[in-house]
Amino acid sequence: MKDLKTEILVSGGLPKLETSRCAGSGEALLKPSLLPMALESSELAPDRKPRDNWGSSLEFLMSCIALSVGLGNVWRFPFTALENGGGAFLIPYLVVLFVVGKPIYYMEMLLGQFSSRGIVQVFDFAPLMRGVGYAQLLALGVLATYYASVMALTLRYFFDSFASELPWSFCREEWGDGCVSASGEQPLQGQLSRNFSSSTQLYLQRIVLNETDSLEEGIGYPSGSLALMLGISWLTVTLIIIRGVKSSGKAAYVLALFPYIVMFILLVRALTLPGAYDGVMYFLTPQWEKLLEPQVWYNAVTQVFFSLAVCFGVIIMYSSYNRFGHNVYRDANIVTTLDTFTSLLSGVIIFGILGNLAHESGTKDIASVVKAGPGLAFISYPDAIAKFKMFPQVFSLLFFAMLFMLGVGSNVGMVSCIMTVLKDQFAHVKLWIIVVSLSVIGFLVGLIYITPGGQHIITLMDFHGVTFVSLVSAIFELIAVGWIYVILVYSLLTMRPLSYNGQEFPLVYRVVGWCVSGCIIGQLFYWAFYANFKQPKGSLKSRINNSIKPHSDWGPSDPKKLMDYQMFLRNKDEENAKNVNRRCVCYTAGDRIFG
């Protein structure tokens, strides 16, 4: 070709961008004669504003670590392992990590960096599936609001740790004879078997949460002290992301590294406790018969998804701020490996403490020492800390400071993801206005979760607004990218009525929960119909075919790289056109799989 860029400029203006589609190809290409026009980015694509970049590649890495290494590792992983046979859980977890987790993590990094788009606009490669981005956006909104309420609890316990005696370590008179002091000498397990409760559990339920037994009389009013803690939590997130990645990237160093300092301190303390060896060996010794139970593998898949934070859109958003040539393959391996290491490290710490609790209780059954549930971080861990003979306040301060940092690191990513979508949509609005508005809305919604019935609502929203819908949207994301599916069928077959503390939710709350799920999952179908409706008139088949093909400007934000990408697709299409006889279903499937 001659200098077509000069030719276009001499001709007196830029014609309307057109696209061409080659038979048997799933790509929408710029017509060859118009490819050089991609160089005129400011005139050709005014909606593709120059995107901010991370201050350094290390800021991106630290932000991903702060996001993925969170409560899912320190809180959820050890007790998921406990419920699934200790060491028996490690084998399916590691298998799923390498077969599912690492490839998806790498895929999402590639999508974000290649396109420089947020979780909604990234699906311009298949507009029919744009609803996946909106579904993930709504799920993130639900998750971020109740995640902040958990951060508020950690702050409450952090400030309580300054007391001369840990307030959850002793019983109060109003609790009656059914209370067992967490710092006492009596065997805890023997007492609990006779329907006694530890002081840590009663402190959480009656002092901090003022928790109701059911939702029959409503959820009540927010706690004043927790409302203050919630406000501090949202203020912290606001200050970190007020300038986008320019400010959050700097904070990522502290958010990513501080938890490891605390964990190594706790590791030394845990391994020096009497009985710690038995607990660690329970964690590391496989129970081979457990590998035949489907539930163990199902829990391994869900743990990998939530631990790595894949299929929530945040990784796509973070990597969209990368420079185009950044080595995401290296970073994906570092983050996923470090995430696994952190889970194992947390497991050793927690099972060391559980081994000590079993030793103190006079039992060898590690699994019977504690019960899993939403309040684990505020019952089992404080109970163990209260038993420390030396400086329990210091360890308590370190532990809850670590939990708060982990919560901030994850919530910064979630809120930043929502912020990015809004900023891409409303580019003229100042960034600080979007951030402050999101924080105020998040604070107001979060007040629901710090009411006496708040833990019930968290359980309800965690399933209907996050867990279930995220699994569905994850499947559709993977279908859109690579025609892969996961284990939704198993979760549907094993689904039971949702309950909290052994009590099923009233019908009205279950209906509300399914309405939330329906609203989020409905985004998949609404935006699919919308994309189909926006196509030129024609047969239904042609409209569907067009709506699953990329937009003409899909690709790198840099116009020169976009032109190279379009030329690559054009050459590939011409090569395929020479082998028309190969264009049967079997060869098309082969091309999809093997390239």
What does this entry look like structurally?
The chain has 595 residues and is mainly alpha-helical. The protein has two domains: 57-163 and 172-183 and 195-212 and 222-534, Amino acid/polyamine transporter I (Up-down Bundle), CATH 1.20.1740; 540-581. It has 23 helices and six strands. It has helices at 4-10, 41-44, 57-68, 71-83, 87-115, 130-160, 188-192, 199-208, 224-241, 245-271, 276-284, 294-308, 314-319, 328-361, 376-386, 392-425, 431-446, 454-482, 488-493, 507-533, 540-547, 559-577, 585-594; strands at residues 19-20, 29-30, 179-180, 197-198, 499-500, 503-504. Strands 1-2 form a two-stranded antiparallel sheet. Strands 3-4 form a two-stranded parallel ribbon. The longest helix has 34 residues, at 328-361. The chain is globular and about 80 Å long. The two termini are 28 Å apart. 47% of the residues are buried. Residues 1-46, 185-194 and 585-595 have low confidence and may be disordered.
